[in-house]
Structure formats: C-alpha cells, structure tokens
C-alpha cells in the first residue's frame, strides 16, 4: 500500500499523522509512506527525526480581510495545490490522509480531484477551518470526540475513532526516562507547554524551579518551546540560578523523545491540546492542566474540563496561573499517594489506546 499523510503547523496535527502512518505500516508489511508538509511548520524538523520520507508544498492561512496579503496568500495556495498534484502523479498513493493544519487543504484537495480515496482526522471537539471545508469533499472524516460530529455538513461520513497515539508512546517503559534525568524512585514531573511552548507556564516555572532545585525527592524536566528557552535561562540567571547546575532539573527547548518522558513521568504539568490529552490518558498520568486561553472556541478549556470532571486532572486557568499554585498542586500529589493513585486510574480510564487501530481499520476499509 502507498500512503500520503499530511498535517502541519503544530505538533498536535503532526504526531497523529505520524501515528497513523506507523499504524498502517505495522498493519501491512511493505506499506510505503510519504509525509507532505510545509518547509516552515514544525513538521519539517519533526518528520526529519523519524526518517519518514518528507516532501513540501507552499501554503499559508488565508487572511479574513480583502487586501494585498490575501492576494499573495491565494497565489501561494494555488502554487501549493499544483505542487500537490505533481506529488500525487509521482508517488501515486492508494490513500491520502489529512490530520489538519493549512497544508492539508491543497494536499487533500489534489487527492480528491485525482479520485484517490481520502480520509481526514479532526483532533478537537471544535473542528478547524481546513477540516470543515475538506469534510465536504473527502470519503471519510474521523473524529476524536462525538461532540464534533454535528459541526460537519455530512454526518453520515463521520466516524468517531478517538485520537491516534503514536505506538512509540504506548510501548515506552519507565526505565526509558533515565536519559532524561527521571529516576524510578523519585517523583518525576514533566512540564511542557504544548509543541510550541507556553510563555506563561515558563514564567511561572521560575518560582517552581527555585522551590524544587536540589530537592531530593523530585526530578523535573521542563520543555520550554524553542522560542522561550533563552528567556527562561536568562530569568533563572537573574535569580542567581545556573540552569546548567540544577542537579535534579533538566531544561530543554524541545523534546523529540516524548515517549520516554511520558513513560517515566508521575505527573505532567501542561497545556490542554487534544493530542497531549490523548497521550497522557493513554498512559494514565495525572495532570495539572493550564489551557491555552486563546485557542479557537476556547477548546483547550473544554478538553481540560473533560479530565477534571472525571477526577483525572487539576485545572489552573492561565489568567490565575502562579508558580505558587503549581508548587502547591505538585506537593499535594507527591505527598498524598492515594490521591495520586486515584487520579492515575481515572486518567487511564479516559485513554483510548484503541484509537489507532480504529483509524487504521477505517483506512483499510476505504481501500476494499
Ligand atoms: C494553541 C493551539 O491552538 N494549540 C492546538 C495545537 O496544539 P499543540 O500543537 O501544542 O498540540 P498538542 O498539545 O495537542 O500536542 C502536542 C504534540 O507534540 C508533542 N510534543 C510536544 C512538545 C515537545 O517538546 N515534544 C513533543 O513531542 C506532544 O507529545 C504531542 O504529541 O493542536 C492541538 C491538536 O489539534 C490542539 O488541541 C491545540 O489546542
């Protein structure tokens, strides 16, 4: 089988595409995969690390107002569409799968016009604009949440599969986390602000790092995002902390080995992006969630509430975020082991490790 997967911009769209690619390869030996993304989005770096063949098309989001930028964006999207048509002719895929982000627009559209079977996956409860438009044209729409079905014009082609989690995440074991500073006999805390990092979390973390550095019982791994890394390091230095000498704390701009970190983490402090949520519940990790307040339709708070209501997570609103609140919640869960166990169980109960199989079957059925 030959498959094109496409999803771009941020990690939340990229990793589900990689998961589906891997799932199809594991289901059918000899499956050939091509990832189509943009040169500018995070996918260029992430996909390169995986060794999956990668090709690019040019594309960008269309501004909502009429003006010079709209004209130049339309030109780029048109160029991207013709590049995608050429990729279809050269690679000749049996199926094209899109997981959201602007890049999916021209890629999936080219496949539709070439009469290649198409499938898109929507991670969030509130569908993104590209997926809403493409849903009218593709053969099948897979969603994470039943709640999103109503936003699509043809509910008949929508299937609720859950969000496909990378097999590497499902298979990683706690001992894999030792290279990242985690230890089996310590309370391991992973802090990550989504695939691009979160400035408000980084700023609050200065106080948290001051509190926990040299703490014998805690290991902490903070992923700042590429853009926030230097600012955080500078702020720590201003407080007299040398980021290179924090002993029990590691700070990274980005983590390619997220499977190892998630396998070893006892607690995660993070944004509430849909892909992250699917991963932490698949692993059964308790979480402190700080939803990104400007996500479309405030969908991250909606994601977070689903976990908080079931007792799997604690939520701190971004506007109310302080280092002290993070410290208090980490200490509470570290010291109250029964509460921690209860939250871990509730988190695991919300996980959908079957989602990858569901979407793999959906793709295979489309080809029958
Ligand atoms: C601001 C915004 O609108 N963000 C959206 C974006 O978030 P974002 O791209 O941040 O998506 P998520 O938090 O859902 O997923 C991040 C992905 O990147 C991985 N990762 C992250 C950091 C790192 O250092 N290494 C790494 O591997 C995570 O394991 C996960 O697989 O897409 C999600 C899925 O459509 C949405 O739900 C989010 O609301």
From TrEMBL:
Family matches, as CDD domains: GT28_MurG
UniProt keyword annotation of Membrane present: yes
Membrane topology: Peripheral membrane protein
Gene3D superfamilies hit by this protein: Glycogen Phosphorylase B
Main location: membrane
SUPFAM superfamilies attached to this UniProt entry: UDP-Glycosyltransferase/glycogen phosphorylase (SSF53756)
Any one of the GO CC terms: plasma membrane
Catalytic activity: di-trans,octa-cis-undecaprenyl diphospho-N-acetyl-alpha-D-muramoyl-L-alanyl-D-glutamyl-meso-2,6-diaminopimeloyl-D-alanyl-D-alanine + UDP-N-acetyl-alpha-D-glucosamine = di-trans,octa-cis-undecaprenyl diphospho-[N-acetyl-alpha-D-glucosaminyl-(1->4)]-N-acetyl-alpha-D-muramoyl-L-alanyl-D-glutamyl-meso-2,6-diaminopimeloyl-D-alanyl-D-alanine + UDP + H(+)
Protein's cellular compartments: Cell membrane
Spans through the membrane: none
Binding positions (UDP-N-acetyl-alpha-D-glucosamine): 10-12, 124, 166, 195, 300
Keyword vocabulary terms for this entry: Cell cycle, Cell division, Cell membrane, Cell shape, Cell wall biogenesis/degradation, Glycosyltransferase, Membrane, Peptidoglycan synthesis, Transferase
Molecular function, one GO term: undecaprenyldiphospho-muramoylpentapeptide beta-N-acetylglucosaminyltransferase activity
Recorded metabolic or biological pathway in which this protein acts: Cell wall biogenesis; peptidoglycan biosynthesis
Matching InterPro entries: GlcNAc_MurG, Glyco_trans_28_C, GlycoTrans_28_N
Family designation: Belongs to the glycosyltransferase 28 family. MurG subfamily.
Protein name stated in the entry: UDP-N-acetylglucosamine--N-acetylmuramyl-(pentapeptide) pyrophosphoryl-undecaprenol N-acetylglucosamine transferase
Gene: murG
């Amino acid at each position: 089988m030959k498959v094109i997967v496409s999803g771009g911009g941020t990690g939340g769209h990229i990793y589900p595409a990689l998961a589906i690619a891997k799932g199809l390869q594991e289901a059918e030996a000899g499956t050939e995969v091509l990832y189509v993304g943009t040169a500018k989005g995070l996918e260029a770096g992430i996909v390169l690390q995986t060794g999956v063949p990668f090709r690019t098309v040019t594309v960008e989001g269309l501004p909502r107002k009429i003006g010079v930028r709209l004209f130049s964006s339309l030109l780029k999207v048109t160029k991207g569409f013709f590049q995608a048509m050429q990729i279809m002719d050269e690679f000749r895929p049996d199926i094209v799968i899109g997981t959201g982000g602007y890049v999916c627009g021209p890629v999936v559209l080219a496949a539709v016009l070439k009469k290649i079977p198409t499938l898109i996956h929507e991670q969030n409860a509130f569908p993104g604009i590209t997926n809403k438009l493409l849903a009218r044209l593709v053969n099948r729409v897979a969603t994470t949440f039943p709640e999103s079905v109503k936003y699509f014009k043809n509910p008949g082609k929508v299937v609720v599969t859950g969000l496909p989690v990378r097999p590497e995440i499902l298979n990683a074991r706690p001992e894999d986390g030792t290279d990242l500073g985690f230890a089996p006999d310590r309370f391991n805390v992973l802090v990550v602000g989504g695939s691009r990092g979160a400035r408000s979390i980084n700023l609050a973390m200065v106080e948290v790092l001051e509190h926990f550095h040299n703490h014998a019982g805690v290991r902490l791994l903070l992923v700042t995002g590429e853009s926030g890394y230097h600012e955080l390091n500078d702020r720590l230095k201003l407080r007299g902390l040398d980021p290179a000498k924090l002993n029990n704390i590691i700070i990274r701009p980005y983590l390619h080995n997220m499977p190892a970190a998630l396998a070893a983490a006892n607690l995660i402090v993070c944004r509430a992006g849909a892909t992250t949520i699917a991963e932490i519940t698949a692993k059964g990790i308790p979480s402190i969630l700080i939803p990104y307040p400007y996500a479309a339709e405030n969908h991250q708070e909606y994601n977070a509430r689903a976990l908080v209501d079931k007792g799997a997570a604690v939520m701190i609103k971004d506007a109310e975020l302080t280092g002290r609140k993070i410290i208090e919640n980490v200490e509470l869960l570290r010291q109250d082991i029964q509460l921690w166990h209860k939250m871990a169980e509730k988190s695991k109960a919300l996980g959908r490790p079957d989602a990858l199989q569901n979407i793999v079957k959906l793709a295979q059925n489309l080809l029958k």
